[in-house]
């Protein structure tokens, strides 16, 4: 299966980090420079870097630039900084998400910028297409949830969400194997994106709640 430009960009950037071309602690090139080097759009590079940030590889410091994380262990183990929490069950992770993400979705509907709204809809639509083509969609899934957290413009809730981003990738690998969950998830993403686009905060809150609760209930029954 041919990789999408988004997935290929993530792989190429990750290789630069793992190979040492971009060593730990170094400042990485601008979005425009990376876009030119890799031959992809700036928006694709931006989302790829956001995904790598959620995985613990890249640190994006607004107003200062983008850096490779100082801890090289995070390149191999994105949950290394959470080991002190012990083994976190997927049920516990979803219980935490259901407390935070509906509120973030509601705030996103109120505060997201027009470019963020457009990008959310594009990510939701891309996930549907990737599922229809049988391609990988996990990175798109994670980028969608991260953009909602960012667009909510609530730094305290974002920090809380950011602390569990490294765990989401592994968790989604499990929940996506539950019956009908991938189809339901892509449908929820489109509906959530539309609610945010139409500035229906309570609807966005309810949809995000049901999206996560569906995974939680299915997991409990499995």
How would you summarize what this structure contains?
Keywords: DNA-binding, Transcription, Transcription regulation. This protein is mainly alpha-helical and 222 residues long.
Structure description:
This protein is mainly alpha-helical and 222 residues long. The protein has 11 helices and 2 strands. The chain has helices spanning 5-19, 31-38, 42-54, 73-76, 90-111, 114-133, 138-151, 155-162, 165-175, 181-197, 201-221, and strands at 58-61, 65-68. A two-stranded antiparallel sheet has the order 1-2. A hairpin with a 3-residue loop joins β1 (58-61) and β2 (65-68). α5 runs antiparallel to α11 (201-221). The longest helix has 22 residues, at 90-111. The protein is globular and about 45 Å long.
Give the topology string: H per helix, E per strand.
Answer: HHHEEHHHHHHHH
Please tell me what the overall shape is: globular
Lateral arrangement of strands in the main beta sheet: 1-2
- Kindly report the oligomeric state of this protein: single chain
Summarize the amount of helix as a percent range: 55-70%
Profile the largest sheet: 2 strands, antiparallel
Quantity of strands, as a count: 2
Q: Return the average pLDDT rounded to an integer.
A: 83
What is the terminal separation in angstroms?
30 Å
Number of helices: 11
Cα gyration radius (Å): 17 Å
- The parts where pLDDT drops under 50 for at least 5 residues are 72-86
Indicate the structural class.
Answer: mainly alpha
Beta-strand residue fraction: under 5%
């Amino acid at each position: 299966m041919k990789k999408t430009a988004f997935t290929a960009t993530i792989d190429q950037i990750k290789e630069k980090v793992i190979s040492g071309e971009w060593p730990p602690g170094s400042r990485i090139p601008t979005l425009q420079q990376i876009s030119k080097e890799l031959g992809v759009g700036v928006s694709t590079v931006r989302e790829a870097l956001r995904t790598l940030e959620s995985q613990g590889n890249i640190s994006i410091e607004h107003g200062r630039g983008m850096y490779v994380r100082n801890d090289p262990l995070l390149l191999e183990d994105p949950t290394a900084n959470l080991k002190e929490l012990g083994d976190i069950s997927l049920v516990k992770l979803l219980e935490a998400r259901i407390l935070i993400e509906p509120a973030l979705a509601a705030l996103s509907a109120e505060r997201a910028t027009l470019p963020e709204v457009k990008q959310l809809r594009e990510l939701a639509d891309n996930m549907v297409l990737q599922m229809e083509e049988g391609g990988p969609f996990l990175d798109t899934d994670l980028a969608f949830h991260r953009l909602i957290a960012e667009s909510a413009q609530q730094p305290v809730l974002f920090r809380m969400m950011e602390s569990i981003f490294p765990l989401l990738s592994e968790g989604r690998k499990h929940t996506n194997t539950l019956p009908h969950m991938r189809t339901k998830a892509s449908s929820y993403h489109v509906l959530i994106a539309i609610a945010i686009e139409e500035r229906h905060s309570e609807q966005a809150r309810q949809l995000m709640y049901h999206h996560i609760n569906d995974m939680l209930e299915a997991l409990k029954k499995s």
